[in-house]
Amino acid sequence: MASQALIRDFEDLIGKENVFSSEADRQSYSYDSAVLAPVVPSLVLRPTSTEQLGVCVKKLYDNGIPMTVRGAGTNLSGGTIPDSTDSVVILTNGLNRIIEINSDDLYAVVEPGVITAQFAAEVARKNLFYPPDPGSQAVSTIGGNIAENAGGLRGLKYGVTKDYLMGVEFFDATGEIVKSGSRTVKCVTGYNLGGMMVQSEGTLGIISQAILKLVPPPKASKALMAVFDEVQDAAEAVAGIIAAHVVPCTLELLDNNTIVRVDDFTKAGLPREAGAILLIEVDGHPAQVADDAEAVERVLKANRARAVHVPKDAEEKFKLWEARRMALPVLARCRPTTVLEDATVPRSQIPAMMKAVNEIAAKYKLEVGTFGHAGDGNLHPTFLCDKRDKEEFHRVEEAIDEMFDVALKLHGTLSGEHGIGTAKSKWMEKETSRGTILFSQRLRRALDPKGLFNATKLVGI
């Protein structure tokens, strides 16, 4: 635990206003968006420069104090919950500069605390495009996106955060700055340490700067909403679109429970009687957009879509996508506890996974709303419950166990974008192998021999 003398050192280093030691402040950083018990840290630090960050890391490591790095705290798997009451939380939201946006060479250089949506908006002002768009983009930070390999609605066509990381700088356990990658399109200088930092969940180092690839924006786009009586028909239509070799930029599914809940809140005029809807957008060259939209509509109708609606203007299109982005916050209003999961399967297995989710929810007598990035196989079954009801929450835990067993049998994965943290570590060996766990632990011990970087996360200790 940080001593009073060390706290005074930090106050001198980064300013009293950036050292949080009161009970109320520390409570604020004891939890994230996962349904897990909070752990109150001993101290919270908010460096505002790269130099301050490096010194903070070194001082904590030299004093044997555990560290948990935190951006906006939107993590859904417990990755930003402190390891123990001795831990110090290091906030990166004070490192929030966009250092460079280069329109000639199509890259940007940013600090880790830059908010994703604000960065994308700045890029768009220069007629460029940064595609990764996690659902929490209005508050999530670039550093957190890298640490979790965040995805989003456009992942189907444009990929996820790792596909846009050209270079990274981070501090290791000794407080030394480590650099990997560059501003060039190709770079094979040394180990791909940037790749190692992606989805490392703050266990290998603390990111201080990133070089991100930018792309030209699409010239045209077209959105469609397909309405289905049965959720299985919608799931089969997703598989059909991919099988037809059409790659929309976005292909999202909402089941009936989600539709009704969202429409109650947003008044978006969604088809409340539908078993499911698909929200689809194709983009690119205008001629390609027209061809792709026509092909998608054919597949939708062949899979029993009873209506295919094209928004009449930009405002109506915005309302549709805003309704989709509201799915989680709206469902979270319905019961005291919302358990959002991240079951991800090969796209051809979406129908089987949807069927399994609904059967499992019925078996355990649970309310579930399912939505998600169906086009890339990433579903978000969301169980609505009350954790204080121990019997009900036990049924939720059993349902989730069974759901992940199904996902793995379908050659899927535990997490498409939320990470492992502590919430999913118990299933890691089921998906990988004992050798994978041991290899990862040896890697961590080599880079962090004291085990102070987010030590209980990802693969355990």
Structural class based on helices, strands and sheet pairing: alpha+beta
Task: Name the average pLDDT.
Answer: 95
Distance between the termini: 20 Å
Record field, number of beta strands: 16
Characterise the protein shown here:
There is one protein chain. This protein is an alpha+beta fold and 461 residues long. The protein is built from 16 helices and 16 strands. The strands form three sheets. Strands 13-10-12-11-15-16-14 form a seven-stranded antiparallel β-sheet, with helices on both faces. Strands 5-6-9-7-8 form a five-stranded antiparallel β-sheet. Strand 7 (165-171) and strand 8 (177-181) form a beta hairpin. The protein is globular.
Structural topology:
Elements: H1 4-14, E1 19-20, H2 23-28, E2 43-45, H3 50-62, E3 67-70, E4 88-91, E5 98-102, E6 107-110, H4 116-125, H5 142-148, H6 155-158, E7 165-171, E8 177-181, H7 193-197, E9 206-213, E10 220-228, H8 231-243, E11 250-255, H9 256-266, E12 276-284, H10 286-302, E13 307-309, H11 314-325, H12 327-332, E14 337-340, H13 350-363, E15 367-373, E16 378-385, H14 390-409, H15 428-431, H16 434-447
Parallel strand pairs: 2-4, 3-4
Antiparallel strand pairs: 1-2, 5-6, 6-9, 7-8, 7-9, 10-12, 10-13, 11-12, 11-15, 14-16, 15-16
Helix pairs in contact: 8-10, 8-13, 13-14
